[in-house]
Amino acid sequence: MSKFKWIKDRSDVNNQSTFDEVAAELLDALKSFDENFDLKDIEAREEETDRSSCKGFLDTDDGTAKTNERRLCKCLYFTNTENKVKTKCDGCALKDRQSEGYHAKVIGNFKVIYYEFVPTNKGNGIGNVDLILADENFAYLTEVKPPREENPETLLRMLLEIETYYRVTVKGKQYEKVVGDKPLRKAILFFKDSPQYKVYCDSACGVNTKELLKKFGITVFCAEFTGTEVLIKAIG
Ligand SMILES: [Zn+2]
Q1: DSSP secondary structure string, the chain?
Q2: N or C: which terminus of the chain carries fewer CB neighbours within 10 A?
Q3: Which one of 94-108, 130-144, 167-181 scores highest in mean pLDDT?
């Protein structure tokens, strides 16, 4: 199995101080990625996600709404898809939390076109891509972090996840339907003033990550609240 994938799942990927070591190993693994990861065994997997409504599950134990990037992306999708039926959001427990990103109307040049995109049938640590954004020219496979997290993941972890998913993405029915003929790019999205945003903008600790993101051709999106709307901008 791919060495690359193991790097993504290494526990120290979330520790800023191990950045240089991990980055060096990552670049090494990348060189031999196609040999390590047997792409010919990969087939498109049909999606399993229920896309009939937003729902917004409540945690059955304490009645609070679950708020993670999967919920966030689902809410953004149902609020912003053009063919959305209004009642699809009725059951969502996060309906009134636009100021935290849930059910916010997306403004700017980028549209939300899909969520929980299944890149491949390969299991073992390959999850779904959080969100697909698109502008006139490109579709963007996007790894998303919510504005607030108890244990925020690092930019390096986001980079490794999206780079991995991009590399194992295969064309199938889902791909055709969502991406079509648009060239596919990879991207990460964080919110303004989030832990990831602060690191990215910090001249001391953000510089290595910025360089690495550039090297991998990863678009960086920053989402910013403007009242109950959210403006998505490409900042790198
Ligand atoms: Zn929702």
Answers
A1: --HHHHHHT-GGGG-GGGHHHHHHHHHHHHHTHHHHS-GGG----------S----PBPTTT-PBP-SHHHHHHHHHHHH-TT--GGGGTT-TTTT-GGGTTTPEEESS-EEEEEEE---S--TT---EEEEEE-SS-EEEEEE--S--SSPPPHHHHHHHHHHHHHH---SHHHHHHTTTSPEEEEEEEETTSHHHHHHH-TTTHHHHHHHHHHTTEEEEEEEEETTEEEEEE--
A2: N
A3: 130-144
pLDDT above 90 as % of the chain: 27
* Distance between Cα 67 and ligand 1 center (Å): 10
How remote is the CA of residue 213 from the centroid of ligand 1, in Å? 31
Report CA(55)–ligand 1 centroid distance (Å): 6
Q: What is the pTM of this model?
A: 0.85
Q: What is the pLDDT of residue 49?
A: 67
Quote the pLDDT of residue 28. 72
Please identify every residue whose CB atom is under 5 Å from ligand 1, which is an ion.
54, 56, 75, 92, 94
Q: What pLDDT, on a 0 to 100 scale, did the predictor assign at position 190? A: 95
Ligand 1 centroid vs 152 CA: distance in angstroms? 22
pLDDT higher at 53 or 6: 53
| Spacing, Cα 175 to ligand 1 middle (Å) | 24
